[in-house]
Amino acid sequence: MEGRTFFTAGEKSFELIDISEDRVRWFKLCERSRRFVGGIRIDENNLRWVCGAMKEASKGEGKLCRRWGRKIEAYIFRVYQNFNSYGRFVRIEAWLGDKKSSVIIP
Questions:
Q1: How much is the pTM?
Q2: Which of 42, 44, 66, 103 is deepest in the core (most CB within 10 A)?
């Protein structure tokens, strides 16, 4: 493993870990809160796309809801900008067939 990046948002902490083993770079984004640990695996190209979608979501204000989607081979990646009583958040989903993994960033 080459590197790790750590950041916090609200009461959650997040860690981006490089899990590459060959020429294609893969990352794991781990989400940790009091009673929950979750994560998604994502390749470098889709991670860059997710970062671009998150940048667009950060420009939104108030009760704006949007979503972005991308399908690469068997994987479907979605980014949702949404809100609830606690405030705005971004949800990142990675689908492989019927299996879904997701991370929520406040």
A1: 0.75
A2: 42
